[in-house]
């Protein structure tokens, strides 16, 4: 019950890392607002949580996290339903197909930076003033990528968006420290999520084998690996930890 009496918003909570984070948080006593652009997916995860034993509870919210009005509405739902917000996990992310930077488009840039980077600023804009007013402190957690610190070729915009996410999170950690609002970042390596097959071309199994060989611990990330790191950052065990970028990558970035 490390998150007892805490309320968390988890974006991209309908699948992959977000689903694992939402379920882990609820199992530790948190009330979770599962935010996803796919309402059916968010609803399914919320139902899973409600059907599991434990003190946590979950509700689904449909939102495009790159849009200010949607983010404002999602934060308002959390406050109206649960009375406060203690944690925001900015997990929602998109990518583009691997290709030369010379072939990437303005539309690619706008879409990827909107979801991967602008969303962090938007959730801070709407959640932090509430946290400051309530005076309970808080935790903002960014799920970035090893691409931010050890980029692969062919992913110029994606890597840049995750690098910007890390820099923004570090800056926010300094701006909000006096309010006891901590901001930390997780950088996962490629993992077993729907995003892997959606954005990689060619044979899926061959892609996994290629990626696995680049990871010293010899496997891809499991969503529960990322959920464990997020749980630490959200919990009081990390009360003196802010501005940290944690690589959860099996040694990929060493």
UniProtKB/TrEMBL annotation:
Pfam families named among the record's database cross-references: adh_short_C2
Single Gene Ontology MF annotation: glucose 1-dehydrogenase [NAD(P)+] activity
Keywords, in A-Z order: Oxidoreductase
InterPro entries: NAD(P)-bd_dom_sf, Sc_DH/Rdtase_CS, SDR_fam
Catalytic EC class: oxidoreductase
Oxidoreductase as UniProt keyword: yes
SUPFAM superfamilies reported for this sequence: NAD(P)-binding Rossmann-fold domains (SSF51735)
EC number(s) stated in the UniProt entry for this protein: 1.1.1.47
Gene3D superfamilies noted in UniProt: NAD(P)-binding Rossmann-like Domain (3.40.50.720)
Family that this chain belongs to: Belongs to the short-chain dehydrogenases/reductases (SDR) family.
Protein name: Glucose 1-dehydrogenase
């Amino acid at each position: 019950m490390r998150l007892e009496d805490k309320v968390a918003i988890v974006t991209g909570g309908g699948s992959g890392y977000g689903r694992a984070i939402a379920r882990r948080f609820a199992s530790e006593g948190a009330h979770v607002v599962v935010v996803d652009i796919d309402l059916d997916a968010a609803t399914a995860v919320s139902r899973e949580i409600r059907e599991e034993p434990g003190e946590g509870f979950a509700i689904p919210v449909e939102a495009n996290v790159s849009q200010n009005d949607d983010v404002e509405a999602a934060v308002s739902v959390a406050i109206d339903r649960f009375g406060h917000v203690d944690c925001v996990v900015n997990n929602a992310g998109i990518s583009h197909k691997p290709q030369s930077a010379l072939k990437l488009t303005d539309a690619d840039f706008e879409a990827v930076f909107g979801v991967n980077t602008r969303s962090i600023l938007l959730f801070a804009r709407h959640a932090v003033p509430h946290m400051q007013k309530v005076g309970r402190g808080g935790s903002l957690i960014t799920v970035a990528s090893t691409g931010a610190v050890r980029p692969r070729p062919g992913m110029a915009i994606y890597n840049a968006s995750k690098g910007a996410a890390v820099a923004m999170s570090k800056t926010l950690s300094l701006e909000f420290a006096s309010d006891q609002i901590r901001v930390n970042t997780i950088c996962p390596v490629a993992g077993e999520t729907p995003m892997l097959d959606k954005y990689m071309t060619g044979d899926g199994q061959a892609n996994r084998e290629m990626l696995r060989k680049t990871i010293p611990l010899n496997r891809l990330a499991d969503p529960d690996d990322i959920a464990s790191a997020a749980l630490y950052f959200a919990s009081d065990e990390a009360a003196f930890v802010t501005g940290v970028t944690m690589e959860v990558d099996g040694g990929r970035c060493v």
